[in-house]
Structures are given as structure tokens and as C-alpha cells.
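Priority: medium. Attachment 1 of 2:
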């Protein structure tokens, strides 16, 4: 009897100790959960504050850019396109920069108003791009993917999966069976379609910001002349076609060829907003806006 009593007593003691340990563990877990919840709430408050500040900054830039009608060109050399800092009390210091776009082949404006006929001034540029990418056979196939009609081009194809409209984002080209992420975005050391084309462009390419590899395939251009344009615009902004006459080797013939595809102003701009130090709440923003409409067309939070 004595042995049974002590065994039961020992069992009760072990059970009490186990229960106590479990309660302590639960209390610790609850305390950890509460701390995580508080940290999460604090992070969310910071994120909301950061987003609000970014919206204020972006809104001011959009309004200011749209209201500026005195200068008819857009170049990184202009003061308002240079990075500036903005301190917002407890939120810290932000670095803000506005970048002119319209720097590549305009996928949304590559056709005539009928939505199917390729603009003649972009024909050679379009074909040369695919040659550079070593995918010559993609030229008509992608045009059939984008144009409004359902009639296949010679060398192209029409399918039910084709969007047959202007793309909302360049990533929509991945719907095309033959298109791969590597071909679209490029790989290390190899360019892709996105290096030559964009949806953020009006009807002309801004020569003040277009990369050399895009300029060199424009009508009347080559790599040497494109590099000379890059060298000139790095010192002085291009404002009109007359300025191209100051570029060494630039001829009237080249100027005539560029008239309908090249310009010096942008319709679309990117605002890059970033904090100097991460405060734990989403502090990098990339905003694209349409100057003509005065509206933000894309918002990306990093």
C-alpha cells in the first residue's frame, strides 16, 4: 500500500511539473507572439507612413513636371532630373530622382492608327532589332501577336492565344509560345527584347536618353554615329534636330531619316524614391507617370 501511495504521489508531482513547464512554455510563446505582433504593427505603421510620403513626393513631381511648359525637351542634364534629398522628420531622409523615359522602340505605337500596319519609319529598326537578337524569324510572329487583325503575315502566325492589342506591360510577350524569359529580358552579357522595346513611350524615341544600342538601329544611324550622339548629349542637351548638325559626322540625310522616329522630349517618366537607411517598412518606390495626362500609370513598392 505504501509503495502504491508513493508511486501515485510521484506521478502527481511529475504531472504538476510537466503542467508547470507547459504553462511556462505557453507564456513564453505568447510573449514572443505578442512581441512579433507589436513589431508587425509597428512595421505596418512605418510602411503606411513611407507609402504616404512617397505618394506626396510623387504627386508633387507629377504636378510640377506637367505644369512646366517652357522647356520643350527632356535631358538628364536639366536640374529637375538630378537626384535630390528630402528629409521628413521621423521618417528620415529620402533620395528622389526623376528619369525621362521614351527611350526605346514604342510597342504601343509601332503600328499606324489601323492597329495592324507597321509604321514604315520603324520597319528597318524593328527588323534590325531581331537580327541583333539572332531571332530574325520572330519579326513577323511578334507583329501578328500584337496587331489588331487576325490575318497572318508572311512568316508570322495567328493564334487564339495572341493578345492582338497594344501590350499593357512588356511581360505580356511571354504569352507567345516561342518567347522565353531569357529572350525577353536578356541574360548576363546578352541583350533581350526589353533592352530595345518599351511600353512607356509615345510615338518618338527621345535621343537624350535612348541607349546607344537603340540609337544605332534607328534609320540613318550606325554604332559610330550613335556613340558620337551619346558623347555630345553628355555635355549638352539635344533640343531640336538642328542640334544634331553639331554632332561630328551627322549628315542631312541622317537627319531626314530620323524625323519621324526621333525626338528630344518624353511623355513618360520614372520617379525613383529611396530612403538612405531602411527603417523596416518598405522604403523603395518606383513610380511611372504620364506627363501629358498628369497621372501615375504604374506604382511599384520594393
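Attachment 2 of 2:
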Amino acid at each position: 500500500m505504501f509503495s502504491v501511495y508513493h508511486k501515485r504521489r510521484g506521478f502527481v508531482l511529475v504531472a504538476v511539473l510537466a503542467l508547470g513547464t507547459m504553462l511556462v512554455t505557453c507564456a513564453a510563446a505568447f510573449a514572443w507572439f505578442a512581441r512579433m505582433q507589436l513589431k508587425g504593427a509597428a512595421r505596418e505603421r512605418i510602411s503606411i507612413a513611407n507609402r504616404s510620403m512617397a505618394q506626396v513626393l510623387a504627386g508633387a513631381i507629377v504636378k510640377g513636371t506637367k505644369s512646366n511648359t517652357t522647356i520643350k525637351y527632356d535631358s538628364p542634364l536639366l536640374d529637375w532630373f538630378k537626384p535630390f534629398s528630402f528629409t521628413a522628420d521621423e521618417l528620415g531622409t529620402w533620395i528622389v530622382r526623376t528619369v525621362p523615359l521614351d527611350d526605346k522602340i514604342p510597342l504601343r505605337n509601332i503600328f499606324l492608327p489601323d492597329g495592324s500596319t507597321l509604321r514604315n519609319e520603324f520597319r528597318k529598326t524593328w527588323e534590325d532589332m531581331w537580327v541583333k537578337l539572332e531571332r530574325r524569324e520572330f519579326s513577323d510572329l511578334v507583329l501578328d501577336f500584337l496587331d489588331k487583325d487576325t490575318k497572318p503575315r508572311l512568316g508570322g502566325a495567328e493564334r487564339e492565344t495572341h493578345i492582338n492589342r497594344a501590350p499593357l506591360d512588356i511581360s505580356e510577350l511571354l504569352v507567345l509560345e516561342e518567347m522565353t524569359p531569357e529572350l525577353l529580358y536578356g541574360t548576363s552579357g546578352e541583350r533581350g527584347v526589353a533592352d530595345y522595346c518599351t511600353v512607356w513611350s509615345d510615338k518618338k524615341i527621345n535621343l537624350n536618353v535612348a541607349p546607344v544600342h537603340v540609337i544605332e538601329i534607328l534609320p540613318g544611324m550606325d554604332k559610330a554615329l550613335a556613340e558620337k550622339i551619346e558623347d555630345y548629349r553628355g555635355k549638352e542637351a539635344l533640343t531640336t534636330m538642328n542640334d544634331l548638325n553639331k554632332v561630328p559626322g551627322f549628315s542631312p540625310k541622317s537627319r531626314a531619316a530620323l524625323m519621324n522616329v526621333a525626338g528630344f522630349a518624353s511623355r513618360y517618366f520614372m520617379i525613383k524614391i529611396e530612403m538612405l537607411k531602411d527603417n523596416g517598412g518598405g522604403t523603395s518606390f518606383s513610380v511611372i507617370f504620364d506627363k501629358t495626362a498628369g497621372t501615375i500609370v504604374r506604382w511599384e513598392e520594393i
